Amino acid sequence: MDPPVVSVVVPTRGRAAYLEVTLDSLLEQRAGIAHEILVVDDGDGGATADAVRARPPVRYVRHGARRGLNAARNTGLREAVAPLIAFVDDDVRVPPGWLGALVAGAALHPEADAFGGPIRASFEGRPPRGCGREDPPITTLDLGERDREVDFVWGANFAVRRTAIKPVGPFDEGIVQPHGDEEEWLERLRAAGGRVVYLAAAGLDHRRTAADARLRPLARAAYARGRGARASDRRRGREPSLAGELRVLAGCGWHTVRRGCPQGLIMGAHSAGRVMEALRPR
């Protein structure tokens, strides 16, 4: 067999049903490009291990205990063998042309050290109604229809050249809350003179099942992201005042009531997470 051109790393923990869809979509790539798929299990095996064993081409590495997303990414970096290493989340569906678009984009931009692509929200049930003034209630990215150099891309659809790792170092395993984990590494990359390119053709879908598209789970996830976002701002010395955070929270409440917008509750949960993190003793 030809050596892989790209290693696709899927960090995961305790979401076997989501992971199965992700892996099946990765196994259906049509580009004819030599590649490997590596699952890094940041949990205790079980159903996750079973999902991988049912798909023999996929490699499996298990931490055995929770160490965090960036630790799983670093394990992927150590285990991967290709010169281009792509990371996708365990709750995405990758279209058949994604791998080809990623590899073609990396070849088209030899000056770039890291890449990302569009992330589209995909709800398999009806999410809470919005009023059109809010962003989708899960992570998305749309920077246009053309490739462009950017400051950041998001870790759900993210690739790095192996040559960029040594001068920049691994991902920071001290970041354990769900925000800013890949951003911190990209900041170091750009500070070292590295370049990040958005590949408009290399998009994928960020999924939520019908059960997870309801108000309660979306609000719970938004609250956790809010806490992580505030912690990320604190690390950078950019956190707004508590008074500012409270004004935003009040604005979310006004939006929910004035617009009759249930998604305002999700926005409010994110803001409440930020407020709670601001109140946490340092």
Estimated helix fraction: 40-55%
Radius of gyration: 19 Å
Mean pLDDT: 94
- Overall SS class: alpha/beta
Indicate the low-confidence ranges by residue numbers: none
Give the ordered list of helices and strands: EHEHEHEEHEEEEHHEEHHH
Q: Overall 3D geometry? A: globular
Number of strands: 11
**Proportion of residues in β-strands:** 15-25%
User: How is the largest sheet built, in terms of strand order?
Assistant: 3-2-1-4-9-6-10-8
Largest sheet: 8 strands, mixed
Intertermini distance: 53 Å
Q: Count of helices?
A: 9
What would you note in describing this structure?
With 282 residues, the protein is of the alpha/beta class. It contains nine helices and eleven strands. It has helices at residues 16-27, 47-53, 69-79, 98-108, 165-168, 181-191, 215-236, 242-259, 263-279, and strands spanning 6-12, 35-41, 59-62, 84-88, 92-93, 114-116, 119-123, 148-150, 157-161, 196-198, 204-208. The strands form two sheets. An eight-stranded mixed beta sheet has the order 3-2-1-4-9-6-10-8, sandwiched between helices. The longest helix is centred in the last third of the chain and has 22 residues, at 215-236. The termini are far apart.
